[in-house]
Design goal:
This protein is mainly beta and 791 residues long. It contains 5 helices and 47 strands. 26% of the residues are buried.
Length: 791
C-alpha cells in the first residue's frame, strides 16, 4: 500500500543546512584583527563523498576547546562542528579523528540541506554517515512540516531506520495534539533503491484514525513507484455513493498504468483504468471505463478514449484521437467522465502529415479521417456535423518578388454518422482549391494590402441535388483592399505616464455573385458577428458558401497603455459594415439556403470597451446595436472585483434578442477568519501560510458560480461550496448541478480533505473550481502530489 509522501521521505531522511565563513573584519587601529565569524547559509551543499570528502576542512568552535592535533578534540559550551554542508551544534561535542566519530550531547542540533534536527544525543561517523540520533525532532523548512522519532539509525549515507516516527505539518510547539499526524512503528529507507517502507502506519485526523496499513511502501524521490493511491469518495444523484480505490502500476520508466476499481451503491461494481506509454518515436494514452452490469440501466456499459502520436521517418508525423461510449445516456449518467469539450458530440480522428518545402515555399501534405458519435438521449436534439472519410490535401505558402501567396487543394468524402442520415441531407465528394496572392505596402505606422483570392470547388453527390444533377462546380474570385493606420501620442493621467493610440481601419471587399443554393453545403455556417469576423472577406465559414460582396467595413480602436510597463488600461472600439449592393447568398441558422436577400445597407454597429483603470476592478463589454430597430441585438457585459488574494467576485450578463438572456455570477471570498497576506504565503518556502498566522485556527471561504436564465426563469448550471483552511489541513465541500435537458439535471457532491505536505483524500473538486470560477486561486500552490499523482 502506498501512502507516505515525498515530503515525509525527505523528512525522515537526514537532511539540513550549512554555514559559510564570513571574511574577518579589518584590523582595529590599535588591536588584533577580529576573529572569523560563521553565519548561517542554507545554500551550501552536503560534503562530497570519497577522498574529496576526507580532504574537506573541519571547523570547530566553542567556549572551550581541548584538542590533540591529528587525534581528537573536545568542545564545550555552545559547541559547533562544521564539515562541508553539515553543521552540528550542542552543549558538548567530541570528535575522534582516527575513527571520524563525532559525539554530541545536550541540546544537539544538526542542519543539512534545508532541514533541521534536534535532540539530546547524536553519534555520527561523519564521512560514512553512520550512527544514531536519540529522540530527535525535525523541521522540514522547504515543506513547512516536521515530526519526531524515538531513534534514527543511520546505516550509511543512503540507508536509515526510524523507530516510532511521527510526521505532520501542524504546529508542534504547543500542548495540543496536532490536527493530523502520520505515525509509524518503524520506517526503513533506502535512497539507492528509492524505496521506503513504513510498518504499522496510521493516519489520524482530529484524533480519529482514518487510514491505516500493516506495511506501507513509498518513493523517496519524485520518481514513480507502484502502489495504492488514496481512495476517492463522491455522491451523485444518478449513481448514489461512489467509492474509487486506484492502484498505480509503474510498469517501466516509459510505461505506467492506473487501475481504479469503482463501486456505486446504485449501479454496482466497475473499473476505471489508464495506460500510458512513451517510446522514442511514439507515445500515447488509453483510458478505459467498464461497468459490466449497470443495475439502473440493466445492461453492460463502457467508454474508451485513445490518444496516440508518433513519427514516421525523419519528418512525417501521425496521430489518432479516438473515443467511443456504449450508449447515448453515458454523458448524463457519468458527467465526471466527460472527456470531450462537446460531451454529446464525440469526435474520433486520425491523421498523417508530411511537411513540404518547394523552393522558398513551405507547406504540408496531409491525410485525415474524422468520425462522430452523436448522443441523442435528451429533449434537445443535436445537429450532427458531416464526417470526413477521408480528407486529404496539400497546403503551400510563401513570399516571392514582394508578393505573399498561399494555396490549398483538398479532397473530402462527406458522410453522416450512423443513425443520423434521415434522407434529407446530401452526402458525397468535394474537391476544392483556395488560393490568394497579396502585397503589403506601408511603414510601421500604416499599411495598405491589396489581395486577390479564389475559392473553387467541384462536387459529386450520392443523391440528386436541387437541380436534379449529381455533379457541379463553381469558381468565385474575391478582391479585397485592407488599409490601416496606427497613431500614438504621449500623455499622462492618474499619476502615471500614458501612451494613447488611435487605430482606424478600412476593408473593402468585392466578390461577384455566384448562385450556390443548388450546391451541397457540407461545412459552411454563418460566422459569429464580432470584431474579428466583421473584417473577414467571407461572412461564412468553411468552403461551400462564398458570400457575394460589394462592401466597406470601417472601424476605429483607441487604447490607453501604461508607458512604464506596457499594461493596457483602457480600450474602446467601434466598427460597422456598409453594403453598396445587396447580398444575395444567405443561409439559415442550420446552414440551409433561406432564399432571402440581405438588403440592409448598414450592418449592426459593434461596440467594444474594457478598462482596468479602477483599482481592483476589471470591466469589459461588447454590444451589437441595430440601427434598423434602434435596439440592442446582442450584448456581453462583465465586471470582476479582485481586491486581494482569495477575494474575487465576477458577474457577466449575456443577451441575444429572441434567443437567450443569462446572468452568470462567480465568487471566491473569505467568510470568517484571517486571510494570509502575500508575505505569509511566501514565508514557508512555497507552502502557503496557515490561516491565523501559522496556527490551526482556520479561515472559511465561500466559492461558487451560477448561471441564471432570465428567459426561462431558472438556474441552469450552478456550483456552490465552502473551503476551510486550517493551515495544516484544508477541507472542501462542493455541490455541482449540471443541466442535461430542459427538465433534467445531474447533481454531484464532492468532498476533499487536503493534509498539507501529505496528500489529498476524497473526490477532487479543484478542477471544477478552476474551470468555472473566474479568478479562482488555490489556497495552496499546486505542488505535485507524489501520492495522488501518477508520476
Amino acid at each position: 500500500m502506498r501512502l507516505t509522501p515525498l515530503a515525509l521521505a525527505a523528512g525522515l531522511a537526514f537532511v539540513g543546512a550549512g554555514v559559510r565563513a564570513q571574511a574577518p573584519d579589518a584590523p582595529a587601529e590599535n588591536g588584533p584583527p577580529s576573529p572569523p565569524q560563521l553565519i548561517p547559509d542554507r545554500k551550501l551543499q552536503p560534503a562530497p563523498g570519497g577522498e574529496a570528502g576526507r580532504r574537506l576542512p573541519i571547523v570547530l568552535r566553542a567556549n572551550e576547546i581541548r584538542a590533540r592535533p591529528n587525534l581528537d578534540a573536545v568542545a564545550e559550551g555552545d559547541a559547533e562542528f562544521r564539515r562541508g554542508g553539515t553543521v552540528i551544534q550542542s552543549d558538548r561535542l567530541s570528535y575522534d579523528q582516527a575513527e571520524d566519530l563525532a559525539v554530541a550531547r545536550g541540546h544537539v542540533r544538526i542542519e543539512r540541506e534545508g532541514s533541521v534536527y534536534w535532540g539530546p544525543e547524536l553519534q555520527l561517523r561523519v564521512q560514512r554517515f553512520e550512527g544514531f540520533f536519540l529522540e530527535p525532532e525535525f523541521e522540514l523548512l522547504q515543506f513547512g512540516s516536521g515530526g519526531r522519532a524515538d531513534r534514527i539509525d543511520f546505516l550509511d549515507s543512503s540507508r536509515a531506520q526510524l523507530k516510532n516516527a511521527l510526521y505532520t505539518s501542524c504546529p508542534r510547539d504547543g500542548g495540543a495534539e496536532p490536527a493530523w499526524v502520520l505515525e509509524a512503528r518503524e520506517v526503513r529507507m533506502d535512497f539507492d533503491a528509492n524505496e521506503g517502507v513504513a510498518e504499522g502506519a496510521v493516519l489520524r485526523f482530529l484524533g480519529t484514525p482514518i487510514l491505516a496499513g500493516p506495511e506501507i511502501s513509498f518513493p523517496l524521490t519524485d520518481e514513480r513507484k507502484s502502489g495504492w493511491l488514496p481512495p476517492s469518495i463522491g455522491l451523485d444523484s444518478r449513481s448514489g455513493l461512489e467509492l474509487t480505490v486506484p492502484y498505480y502500476w509503474n510498469i517501466a520508466p516509459n510505461r505506467d498504468a492506473t487501475i481504479a476499481p469503482w463501486l456505486s451503491t446504485r449501479r454496482g461494481l466497475g473499473v476505471q483504468s489508464q495506460f500510458r506509454y512513451l517510446e522514442p518515436s511514439l507515445g500515447g494514452t488509453l483510458d478505459l471505463d467498464l461497468l459490466p452490469n449497470d443495475r439502473v440501466a440493466g445492461r453492460s456499459r463502457s467508454a474508451w478514449h485513445w490518444q496516440h502520436e508518433g513519427r514516421l521517418g525523419s519528418s512525417a508525423t501521425y496521430a489518432a484521437d479516438l473515443r467511443r461510449v456504449s450508449d447515448d445516456g453515458w454523458w448524463k449518467d457519468f458527467p465526471d467522465a466527460r472527456r470531450s469539450l462537446t460531451p454529446r458530440l464525440l469526435s474520433s480522428a486520425a491523421d498523417v502529415e508530411q511537411p513540404l518545402r518547394l523552393g522558398d515555399a513551405e507547406g504540408l501534405a496531409y491525410l485525415r479521417v474524422q468520425r462522430w458519435q452523436v448522443l441523442q438521449d435528451s429533449d434537445q436534439r443535436v445537429f450532427s456535423p458531416y464526417q470526413r472519410s477521408p480528407q486529404t490535401g496539400v497546403r503551400l505558402g510563401g513570399s516571392a518578388a514582394g508578393l505573399d501567396y498561399s494555396a490549398e487543394t483538398e479532397f473530402n468524402r462527406f458522410t453522416l454518422p450512423s443513425g443520423e442520415d434521415d434522407g434529407t441531407r446530401l452526402t458525397g465528394d468535394r474537391v476544392h482549391l483556395l488560393a490568394s496572392v497579396a502585397h503589403r505596402f506601408g511603414d510601421p505606422g500604416w499599411w495598405l494590402e491589396p489581395r486577390l483570392a479564389l475559392n473553387a470547388a467541384g462536387y459529386r453527390t450520392d443523391q440528386r441535388m436541387a437541380d436534379g444533377d449529381r455533379s457541379a462546380s463553381r469558381s468565385v474570385p474575391t478582391f479585397s483592399l485592407d488599409f490601416g493606420v496606427e497613431l500614438e501620442r504621449e500623455t499622462s493621467g492618474f499619476g502615471r505616464a500614458l501612451r494613447q493610440t488611435l487605430e482606424p481601419r478600412l476593408l473593402y471587399v468585392r466578390t461577384p455573385y455566384e448562385k450556390q443554393s443548388d450546391l451541397p453545403n457540407f461545412d459552411s455556417f454563418g460566422k459569429d458577428f464580432n470584431f474579428q469576423s466583421i473584417y473577414s472577406p467571407n461572412v461564412f465559414s468553411g468552403v461551400d458558401r462564398v458570400s457575394d460582396a460589394n462592401q466597406l467595413t470601417a472601424g476605429v480602436t483607441s487604447r490607453v497603455v501604461d508607458a512604464g510597463n506596457g499594461k493596457e488600461l483602457f480600450r474602446l472600439g467601434v466598427v460597422q459594415r456598409y453594403l453598396f449592393t445587396d447580398q444575395r447568398v444567405t443561409l439559415q441558422a442550420d446552414g440551409t439556403p433561406d432564399g432571402q436577400t440581405y438588403d440592409r445597407r448598414f450592418s449592426d454597429v459593434l461596440l467594444l470597451g474594457s478598462t482596468s483603470l479602477l483599482p481592483s476592478w476589471t470591466l469589459d463589454g461588447t454590444v451589437q446595436y441595430s440601427p434598423e430597430i434602434s435596439r440592442t441585438v446582442r450584448s456581453v457585459v462583465g465586471a470582476r472585483y479582485s481586491p486581494g488574494p482569495f477575494r474575487t467576485i465576477s458577474t457577466t450578463y449575456r443577451f441575444a434578442r429572441g434567443l437567450s438572456e443569462q446572468v452568470e455570477v462567480g465568487w471566491q471570498w473569505p467568510l470568517w477568519g484571517r486571510v494570509p497576506t502575500a508575505a505569509d504565503r511566501g514565508a514557508r518556502s512555497g507552502v502557503a501560510a496557515a490561516a491565523g498566522a501559522g496556527s490551526c485556527s482556520g479561515t472559511w471561504y465561500g466559492v461558487g458560480r451560477f448561471n441564471y436564465s432570465m428567459r426561462d426563469s431558472r438556474i441552469t448550471d450552478s456550483i456552490l461550496g465552502v473551503e476551510y483552511d486550517a493551515g495544516c489541513w484544508i477541507g472542501r465541500f462542493v455541490a455541482e448541478r449540471l443541466s442535461t435537458g430542459r427538465s433534467e439535471a445531474t447533481t454531484r457532491l464532492m468532498f476533499q480533505l487536503e493534509l498539507v505536505g501529505l496528500s489529498r483524500l476524497g473526490s477532487n473538486p479543484l478542477g471544477v473550481l478552476k474551470d468555472n470560477i473566474p479568478g479562482y486561486t488555490l489556497l495552496r500552490e499546486d505542488r505535485r502530489d507524489p501520492i495522488s499523482s501518477a508520476e
